[in-house]
UniProtKB/TrEMBL annotation:
It comes from the Bacteria. GO terms for molecular function: DNA binding. Residues 277-324 are annotated as: Disordered. It comes from Enorma massiliensis. CDD domains: INT_ICEBs1_C_like. Belongs to the 'phage' integrase family. Residues 53-258 form the Tyr recombinase domain. This is Tyr recombinase domain-containing protein. GO terms for biological process: DNA integration; DNA recombination.
Length: 340
């Protein structure tokens, strides 16, 4: 299969073969436990390595530029638009009908998938069935697409007025994305549209699924909670969303490094401030004290504590009119931190 011995004639990826290996391993392990076979033959087979390339993600500025380039009145561009702004999969985009869009409440319902065999079926998992809120600009784009589709049907019906076939009418079950024959677009056809248009959009070499990656990565950069991202993406676990579909760019890494630098600088500045103002602190008032750890490089040998001075602290258990005082000794390595 790695050499192209498949039905399509294309070599299978390492990730696909890895999944097959895991499935066969589970099946044979069950047969061994039932004593149907003596040993698991998969134990003697090397596990195929996952060779899936890391997906890229567009920056928010580049995503905005792509949205401005799209003509949402067309079938192909409204599909790209839904992938970059709603994070829909290719099969979910092709399965979308006007019945699934509630323009009054601005909600898009995802509950079907259109597979390679032209089967319109329910989503594979319960998590894949979800209701997505529509932003205002996405709702406007879909309305423009719906109006353009109505005009297309009128023109198509006029051209086919003398024929028995070819009459089309927009209904609630009409797909949002149509092919040349005014039928529901096949997922492979939609993928070929992207391969044709991506160079014109300035995204040569980018795959269609990376638009979904970009959508989820932008949500992560904006601080959206992982659980909310999971619901929007239709994943069964938030771990899948955070580990696979989010990307950290160099700017975010630099921000994390700056946070650590600021933290260490603030610690050093605090100790320097307290050492400088300890002698000038006002007297006659109680203070909190804390131990200042000397630098590891300049730490002096430990010495026995020596009484250097006395100061008075009011005893809170005595009467307020005639307070008594208690003598407290301080060591050289104690510093005054702040007044109560």
């Amino acid at each position: 299969m790695r050499q192209g011995d498949t039905l399509s004639g294309k070599p299978s990826s390492g990730a696909y073969l890895n999944q097959i290996n895991k499935t066969l391993d589970l099946m044979f392990r069950d047969l061994v436990e039932r004593e149907v076979i003596m040993c698991n033959p998969i134990d003697k087979v090397a596990t195929p390595k996952v060779d899936t390339k890391e997906k890229r993600a567009l920056t928010p500025a580049r995503m905005r530029q792509l949205v401005d380039q799209l003509e949402v009145e067309t079938s192909c561009d409204i599909g790209y638009f839904l992938a970059i702004t709603m994070g829909l999969r290719r099969g979910e985009i092709c399965a979308l009908s006007w019945r699934d869009i509630d323009f009054d409440n601005k909600v898009l319902t995802v509950n079907h998938n259109f597979d390679a065999f032209r089967n319109l079926k329910e989503a594979k998992t319960h998590a894949g069935m979800r209701n997505l809120p529509l932003p205002e600009f996405v709702c406007d784009a879909l309305l423009r697409r719906k109006k353009a589709q109505q005009e297309y049907f009128l023109t198509r019906n006029y051209l086919h007025r003398g024929l028995k076939k070819g009459w089309s009418e927009q209904t609630e079950d009409t797909p949002v994305v149509l092919d040349f024959y005014a039928q529901r677009a096949h997922p492979d056809t939609f993928g070929k549209w992207w391969e044709r248009d991506r160079k014109l959009l300035g995204l040569d070499g980018w795959c269609l699924h990376e638009l979904r990656h970009s959508y989820l990565s932008m949500l992560a950069q904006q601080g959206v909670h992982p659980k909310v991202m999971q619901e929007l993406a239709g994943h069964a676990s938030a771990t899948i969303t955070m580990d696979i579909y989010t990307h950290v760019n160099m700017d975010q890494k630099r921000e994390a490094a700056d946070v650590m630098e600021d933290a260490f600088q603030s610690i050093g500045a605090e100790e320097e401030f307290m050492a400088k103002h300890a002698e000038d602190a006002p007297k006659g008032r109680p203070y909190k004290v804390r131990h200042v750890r000397p630098s590891r490089r300049t730490r002096a040998p430990e010495q026995a504590p020596v009484q250097t001075e006395e100061r008075f602290v009011p005893d809170s258990y005595q009467q307020p009119d005639r307070p008594k005082f208690q003598v407290i000794t301080t060591a050289p390595d104690l510093r005054v931190s702040e007044a109560i």
